[in-house]
């Protein structure tokens, strides 16, 4: 059974250098689970923090469930992340380093449980972003030229 990805944070790969990935479980309410499975998750502005020996996910938007009633959830609320104590300790130490933060990279289903992949990230400078875009454009030009050359034969 393959993992189904419900949301990815593509902007994170543009704005940050991802140094390390960690898988964490999510504590959600029933309507949140249904909304995530419907693909109504936005990770773009989200981040995670370690506080009092627990991991928390902030600023992640999960849209209210369409068929939800008065028990529907708040779209943007602080959600608890499930990690082993050792992982929490390591992430707490690493995230205190200058310029490092924890950001959600994707939300997916793994054997019936919703998981979030966190990335320990360091912010890119504007120069780094331009270099990556230039490299990507050069790669496209090379691929295009190779395809043109193959057609000529």
Structure description:
With 153 residues, the protein is an alpha+beta fold. The chain has one domain (4-124): Beta Barrel (Small Protein B, Chain: A). 34% of the residues lie in helices and 37% in strands. It has four helices and nine strands; from the N terminus they run βαβαβββββαββα. It has helices at residues 10-15, 30-37, 85-95, 126-152; strands at 4-8, 16-26, 41-42, 47-51, 54-58, 61-62, 79-82, 100-110, 113-123. The strands form two sheets. A seven-stranded antiparallel beta sheet has the order 1-8-9-2-7-5-4. The chain has a two-stranded antiparallel ribbon with strand order 3-6.
Biggest sheet, spatial arrangement of strands: 1-8-9-2-7-5-4
Provide the β-strand percentage band: 35-45%
* CATH fold label: Small Protein B, Chain: A
Q: Would you report the number of β strands?
A: 9
Looking at the overall shape, the CATH architecture is: Beta Barrel
User: Which consecutive residue ranges, at least 5 long each, have pLDDT under 50?
Assistant: none
Q: Rg, please?
A: 19 Å
Largest sheet: 7 strands, antiparallel
Strand pairing plus helix content: what structural class?
A: alpha+beta
Q: Write down the domain tally.
A: 1
Return the string of H and E elements.
EHEHEEEEEHEEH
Q: Mean pLDDT, nearest integer? A: 88
Shape: globular
Number of helices, counting only DSSP H or I runs of 4 residues or more: 4
List the helices and strands and how they pair.
Elements: E1 4-8, H1 10-15, E2 16-26, H2 30-37, E3 41-42, E4 47-51, E5 54-58, E6 61-62, E7 79-82, H3 85-95, E8 100-110, E9 113-123, H4 126-152
Antiparallel strand pairs: 1-8, 2-7, 2-9, 3-6, 4-5, 5-7, 8-9
